[in-house]
Design brief:
602 residues; 7-stranded mixed sheet; disordered N terminus
């Protein structure tokens, strides 16, 4: 997720001409082999005796804390004449510089070795820069314009790709701190492809900068999928956002040294993957393209009020992530299907995993989708060392929201008047996104009441958003020619994830609340050595351990806990998992039309 700006290109270009004193940054990479950058910044026209400088504790699009200050060292400050200035540390994230006469020049070394959408990575393949993880900032002067001089390694043929406004000579600008923080930059020997997409009489350049070890032919093939995804997502909303400078930039890095991720920004997105285009990446990486580009509408401009303004020093909590992230996740696979990147069958087969996760989770009795969204600061790449009970208390707001998006889409398509989730998203876009008015969950409810009727809107939110009830997915899916069945209903089910090795089946997570394992008192770390008197064999696997039993059978289980042998008896449960299967026979005309308008493609 990212924060929002009501900025037009004219404003962006004019702010630097209004006499405001700009903060100036410079970054170079002489020691890239050891993951270091040397950063300098000059702050002019300071009005306070003490200049407070900080490293952000989080990053737009993330909800947890990441403490970027931990990678900054060798900090020095001077005045305009090179005289050393006093630097003190009032807290772990801040440097106070005193004794200046209105100008401070700060220098420091940054260590960076994680290439994804949150952190920065510097090595001899690239300088992959997430701005909050890279640059100190002056919170008291956040509205001043910023100029940054990137100094690429010419010996490595590096170039610069970013959504920042180019000024020439390696210089780029941002109108204020927020825009700067939201502008990741890839500096490498990347390949660039461009195409033009029109909207509302304007032409926009869509750029794809790819840092990879593949071939031009692979990139050209991949670009055909990218173009189709862009066209399909534009069709959902009926238009493109009015991108600043008329340009949107994909910053893709498909290399072995990065970590898989995607992170959306106002006019760009970061895409990182260890999958090359030659090694499964042609289709698998396209999902991240679809997800992050959709965020250009839903999150960047259709923006939750709870994330306004973005706080760089605290965790950012929102109750609307089931919509902002979850509905975007729903459209991710759907866009791939409509674009023909995957088939209708592949898309429908993939629905089962998300539906099983949400429908069969005991976590719904603890938290509804809004409350699941509140958990983001604890789960969104957050780090902690104490064990948690997420297996029983948490459902990802990405997945929860995606299955609600599915239910809403199919429900709307069952109504008269040509309604659909596409139409609802267009309504929300025109009401909140295009004018950039932040929304609340109640605003979304009122929008649905207006779009689809007061009774429907109230009931949908009361049952499925503010409560944890489940829609009738069997009825909804079958109305679109998709079977939703439980083929393993009679199969025995333990309710625990097992790792089988050394003649034991170890519970690697807390058992599912209410399951056979849970009711029998089994717990994470227990090592099952025999079931029903049959020892766990060397070649056993979790799938065949219960093959001789059916649901309802009572069996004795021998296990070890803390090195001590124990025995319990349990009653095996039933496999409650569903499958989603595309009906491939002749469909009734109405069902066939509904499915085709929903899925598109083939």
């Amino acid at each position: 997720m990212k924060f929002i700006y009501c900025l037009c290109p004219l404003l962006l270009s004019s702010l630097l001409l209004m006499g405001q004193t700009a903060h100036e940054y410079e970054i170079e990479f002489p020691n890239a082999v050891h993951h270091e950058a040397r950063v300098s910044a000059t702050f002019l026209g300071l009005e306070s005796e003490v200049l407070a400088l900080r490293m952000s504790r989080t990053s737009p699009g993330r909800y947890a804390l990441h403490e970027f200050a931990k990678n900054v060292y060798d900090v020095k400050a001077t005045d305009e004449n090179g005289k050393p200035l006093s630097v003190t540390r009032p807290n772990p994230y801040q440097w106070n510089v005193s004794g200046h006469n209105g100008t401070v020049r700060i220098t420091y070394t940054l260590f960076a070795d994680r290439g994804d959408g949150t952190y920065s990575q510097i090595d001899e393949t690239h300088a992959h820069l997430n701005i909050p993880a890279t640059f100190m900032y002056a919170p008291d002067y956040s509205q001043r314009p910023i100029r940054v001089h990137f100094k690429p390694r010419t010996d490595l043929n590096w170039k610069v790709a970013t959504q920042l406004r180019p000024l020439g000579g390696g210089m780029y600008s941002a109108p204020n701190l927020d825009y700067f923080m939201d502008s990741p930059t890839e500096i490498s020997n990347f390949s660039m492809r461009e195409f033009t997409e029109t909207s509302n009489g304007k032409s926009y350049t869509i750029r794809f900068a790819l840092h990879h070890a593949g071939t031009d032919a692979e990139l050209d093939t991949y670009m055909e999928s990218v173009k189709k995804i862009v066209v399909q997502e534009k069709a959902v909303y009926g238009e493109l956002p009015d991108y600043d400078f008329g340009t949107y930039t994909f910053l893709a890095c498909y290399m072995d040294n990065v970590s898989g991720d995607g992170m959306e920004h106002r006019n760009s997105t970061v895409l990182t993957s260890t999958r090359s285009l030659a090694n499964g990446g042609l289709n698998r990486n396209a999902g991240t393209v679809a997800h992050e580009f959709f965020h250009g509408w839903n999150v960047e401009r259709i923006r939750p009020k709870s994330l306004q303004p973005f706080d760089y020093m605290e965790a950012n909590m929102s109750g609307e992530l089931w919509f902002a992230e979850g509905f975007t996740q729903y459209y991710t696979g759907l866009m791939l299907c409509r674009a023909g990147v995957i088939s209708q069958k592949e898309y429908v087969d993939g629905l089962a995993g998300s539906l099983n996760y949400v429908i069969n989770s005991p976590a719904r009795k603890y938290f509804n989708p809004v409350e699941m969204s509140y958990q983001a600061p604890f789960v969104d790449a957050a780090a902690s060392i104490d064990p948690v009970n997420r297996e029983n208390t948490f459902i990802s707001y990405y997945t929860y929201g995606s299955v609600l998006g599915l239910a809403l889409d199919l429900s709307l398509r069952d109504m008269d008047g040509g309604l659909s989730l596409d139409g609802f998203m267009q309504y929300v876009w025109k009401t909140y996104g295009k004018p950039e008015i932040p929304y609340t969950a109640r605003d979304l409810q009122l929008a649905l009441e207006t779009y689809a009727g007061e009774k429907f809107g109230k009931e949908f939110f009361a049952k499925y958003v503010f409560d944890s009830q489940m829609p009738d997915y069997k009825k909804l899916l079958e109305s679109a020619g998709v079977h939703f069945e439980q083929p393993g209903k009679g199969k025995a089910y333990l309710g625990a994830y097992l790792d089988v090795r050394d003649r034991a089946a170890t519970l690697v997570a807390q058992p599912m609340e209410g399951s056979a394992a849970y009711q029998a008192g089994l717990a994470k770390g227990d090592k099952i050595t025999s079931i029903g008197g049959r020892p766990v064999s060397e070649d056993a696997n979790p799938q065949n351990l219960l093959a001789a039993y059916k649901s309802g059978d009572k069996v004795k289980v021998d296990f070890e806990r803390f090195g001590q042998p124990r025995t319990t008896e349990l009653t095996l449960g039933a496999d409650a998992s569903y499958t989603t299967v595309l009906f491939e026979g002749k469909l009734a005309a109405k069902v066939g039309e509904k499915r085709q308008s929903w899925l598109g493609g083939k």
